[in-house]
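Review form for a predicted model. The reviewer records the input and the model, then writes brief findings.
Reviewer: anonymous (R2)
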Amino acid sequence: MKKSFYIILLGICIMASCQNDKTDKGSSIEFKNVNQVLTKSFSNLNTLDTFKIELTGRKANDIVLHFTIKNGEGLEIFSEDLKGTDLVQNTDPNIDLSKEKDQVIYLKTIANDFFAEDNFLEPAVMPDDKADNNTPDKALYEDLKKSALNGFKYRLGKDSNLYIAWSEKDKKVKVYYKCC
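Model under review:
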């Protein structure tokens, strides 16, 4: 009787360990999707715009960060989908992201930190700042100096930051600075 009990117990342990190996190597990592919303002055200094980041997908290859900005009237003025695969490929090569679990954790960290306070630039351009080779639209840059509108920056990879702001002239969000 004792022998049968130990054999059954051993079988259960083996089955449980096989099940654990499957989830570690599996293609689906369980986690809660990131969904953050906050309001900041952006397209108009007198109203608040709504910034939203939502991370969707269960597998590292399927994850997308949906970034949107709506003005104070609720109209969407900016939208960009950042593919998780692109963010992983453009990261620092010294970070080991060979395992899917680590990729998912990395992408979730990006989403959680997306609205860090230092990403909101008030104002977007200081009055004494000078445009340089990283300024794709020098006219917008100069307009931002005069309007004192706020900006926002976000990372696309280890060597790529985009700085965006509202263009009063074009009535849309535009990139005003790109750099490292």
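Findings: Confidence is low (pLDDT under 50) at residues 2-30.
Further findings: The first helix runs from residue 2 to 25.
Recommendation: see findings above.
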